[in-house]
Structure formats: structure tokens, C-alpha cells
Amino acid sequence: MVKVLEVFAFGFVFEIENENPFFQHSETDIYLNGEQVLKSNKNVISIFDLKPATLYLVEIKAAGITLGHFSVCTENCICLINIKDYNAKGGGLIDDTAAINLAIYTARPGAVVLFPKGDYSVSHILLKSGVSLYFEEGATVKQNTDRGQMAVLKGLQKSYTYDSAYINTTWEGNPLDSYCPLIYGKNVSNIRIYGRGCLDGDGLDSGFWENTKARGVIYRPHNVELVECQGVTICGIKSVNSSSWNIHTIFSERINFYGMHLESLNTSPNTDGINPESSSNINIVGCYFNVGDDCVAIKSGKYFINQYFFKKSENITIRNCFMDSGHGGVVAGSEISCGVDGIFVSKCFFNKTDRGIRVKTRRGRGKESVVSGINVVNCKMSGVKHCLTINMFYNCDPDGKSDYVKDKSLSAIDKFTPTVKDIKLERVVAEGVSGCAIFVYGLPENYITGFSMKGCSISFNPEIINEEIEMLEDFEPPGKLGVFIENCEGAIEGVGFIGDFVSINNLHPGSFTR
Length: 514
Fold this sequence. Notes:
Layout: E1 2-7, E2 11-16, E3 23-32, E4 35-42, E5 44-48, E6 55-62, E7 65-73, E8 80-82, H1 97-105, E9 112-115, E10 118-122, E11 125-126, E12 132-135, E13 139-143, E14 152-153, E15 156-158, E16 165-167, E17 178-179, E18 183-186, E19 189-195, E20 198-200, H2 203-206, E21 213-215, E22 218-219, E23 224-227, E24 230-235, E25 238-240, E26 247-250, E27 253-258, E28 261-263, E29 274-277, E30 280-285, E31 288-290, E32 296-298, H3 303-308, E33 313-319, E34 322-325, E35 328-333, E36 340-346, E37 349-351, E38 355-360, E39 370-382, E40 386-391, H4 403-406, E41 419-433, E42 438-441, E43 448-454, E44 457-460, E45 483-486, E46 488-493, E47 496-498, E48 504-505
Parallel strand pairs: 8-9, 9-12, 10-13, 11-18, 12-19, 13-20, 18-23, 19-24, 20-25, 23-26, 24-27, 25-28, 26-29, 27-30, 28-31, 30-33, 31-34, 32-35, 33-36, 34-37, 35-38, 36-39, 37-39, 38-40, 39-41, 40-42, 41-43, 41-44, 42-45, 43-46, 44-47, 45-48
Antiparallel strand pairs: 1-2, 2-5, 3-4, 3-6, 6-7, 14-17, 15-16, 21-22
């Protein structure tokens, strides 16, 4: 019934196992050693402000009846370092960058750096292997977005002799110079960032949202970026107001995101939630998203990365998450030139996202750009425009509207031809769909294969919209369209379509039940 996901020195996070997406059947009371500490209706619950090296008996009750119990012993804390002991002032008026980074870099491995309640202004925080960060409730770290004080990351750092290079950061799939994120880790491991604190990127007031390039070709910062990192967990933290993507991982492995809250204005540009890029063994569990772009977008770089720093994204689990708004709920692409293998989405709730599941790629991404093994099971969608879109004519980038990309006729398969295969949806319930529920458009020279939907239910909003379904050139939907599938081999079996969704077009091959 209960799975403990991770234990920290000052808390832990656990998951209640049931069949409900994101929410429990009803609100429950959580007790620690006989004392009630919180109420929750969520499946993933974090508890903080505990004592290190202490045994806790946890009881889950509803209406006074015990539904389950388990015990947890918090980790030992080798050393607790308060940033105020390093002269961090708080108050949000003085830049505390130097004090906080000094506290982190003088800490021994196994130490925990404490951010007590208060407001802290920083230009960036740099992570150190083995040193964790604990944010008390009411601790807010806000990025100082004064361009004169912000550090700049070289996207591609060349060697002295120019015969090699390495990547520090990327912008939309290419290694381009960007301002340093609020929290940045490069080649670090064994770190936990947890608690009830808040990371505020100041995107709303900084001018970054109005001007996507703040100066020359220096791109906007993220709230958190992890590059070549291993064994990092972020739990319970709130990420808001990010100048661009909230969380970005590059070439990283074994990264966990538990019970996070990620929020930006719905009108804010490029403020994706969590974007794993060329990363593997990623767990995104129990997180809440309400952002201005995609909630979770899995990427693996553009063609330059494919040629010189090849690493696909693989084995990514997204479970018990709530996508409350965004362009896409769970997305693969479009910068996907190294491919993705294995995306597992289950028990997620998609509420009023433009699209639930989305795959976007195009000619030019490369023959190694193979998107495969997307499995979506037991999810609910409410009020989404489109449940699933797969677009292999995505018109992004300066050449996205070229004849090579947009031509719907048969083209030669070459080294730039991408592949999409093995996309499976099972037991997905979508209610109040207001647009084309299923839009699948493969390349005529390289059909999408292994596509299937099974045991799903889709009901339509009586107010069907007739708008652009996907970003592609020279496509006019034939009226109000419920399902469009072309250049795809697969099957739709046992799927119930409820309501007058008007038309099904180009279903090839397969069958459906209305």
C-alpha cells in the first residue's frame, strides 16, 4: 500500500499505492508517533522538519480508522551548516551569493546546508558533491537578475588547443551561452535539495519574458540546471517564476524529482516544468505543474549534439503527477536528435493542457533520432484540447518551414530522417475534449509503427473548437476533426468515443469502437 521513495536527515517522502491518478480516494490524516501532522488527499506525501537519526511510526487514517502504517528512521546528519553563520543576511535586499556558496564549498561531504526561513537574493548557487541543501518552510531564494551581476555560462567550452570541447549548458538543443541558473550543478553527485522552500527566478519582473535574449546572444537562465550529474534528488521544493525552463538536466543519470510544485504564468514563454535532455534513469513522481509551456519535455539535442556529444534520453518515469496547465503534458521533442527510449507515464492527471501526450520531430533531426517505447497507462485527462498528437512535420527552427521539412509527399530516406515507433496508450480516460482527440502524422517515407490504443475512453465537449492542431505547414483540417491518423501502422482497439465528434479521417490501418 505504501512505498517510501526516499529518506533524508530532516524528512522523508512516500507514495500511497492505488489506482487513482495523483489523488487518493479521499482525504487522509497522517500521524507520526501518535500525533497528527497533516491532512492530504495526494498519493505522494512529503514530511519535513523532523529530527535526524530518529525512528518514526507513521499511521495513515481516514475517519479515525487506520488504513496503513509503517516505520521510517531518518538519516544521520554529520554536520548542519546554517547559511546565516556565513553572514547571509536574508531580507532579500543584500546579495547573499558569496555567503551561501562559501557555506556550501566549505562543507564536508555528508553535510546539510540549512536555509532558514527568510528571503535571500542570489545571482546563482553552485552545488558540491555530497552536500545537501535543506530549505525550511518560508525560505525563499530569489535570483538577482541584474545583468551586470549575473554570471554567464559558456555553452561550448573549447580546449586550449581547440581540438576538443565540452558542454556547460544548452539552449533549445544547442550549446549556446546563457546566464547561470539560480541553482547550477556540473559533474556533481549524491546531493539532496529538499524541504518546503521556494526558488523564484524573478522572470516576471526581470524583463526576460519580454526579451528572450537579454543581451546579444546570451540566453535566459533556468531555475535549476544539472549537467553531467548523478544521484541527485529534489523533493518538496517549489519552483516559480523561472526565466525559462524551470528544471533542466543534461547528460545526467539517476535524478529524482518528488513532490515538487512548478508554476509560472500561463502566458510566460518557454517556462517548461522539467526537461530531461540526454539523461537517463529519471523519476518524476508526485509533482504539480502549472506552467507557460510544456510540463515535462524529454529532449536529446539538435543535430550538432548528435554528431559530437551523442547521448539519448532513456528510462524516464513520470507517475502520479498533476499537469494543471501547459502546452503539453508529457512531450518528446522537438530537439530529439539523439533519440529517446523508454518513457513510462502512469497515474497522471492532465487538466486543461493544450495536449496530453505529444511527440514532435521532423526531417533534419537525424537517423539516430528514434523516439520509441512511450507507454501511457491509467491516466486521466479533463478539458484538454487534444489527447495525443504525434507530428513528424514540426515546423520549428529557421528551416522549419522549408520545402524539405514541410513536403507531405514521399521523400528519400537519408541520414536526416527521424523515426517514431512503439507508442502505446492503455486505460486512458479523457473527458471534455475540445479538439482533435488523436492526431498522428508520420512521414510517408518512414511510417510510424507499433502505435496502439487499447481500453481507452474519450468524450467530447459539445463546443468543439476548430483551430490549429499542431505546428506544421500546409495542413488544413477537414472541418471539426475527432481523429486523424496518416502514415502510421497500428491499431485502435476497444476505444470508446462518446458524443458527436463529427469525423474520423485517414485511419490507417486499425479499427475503433464508437
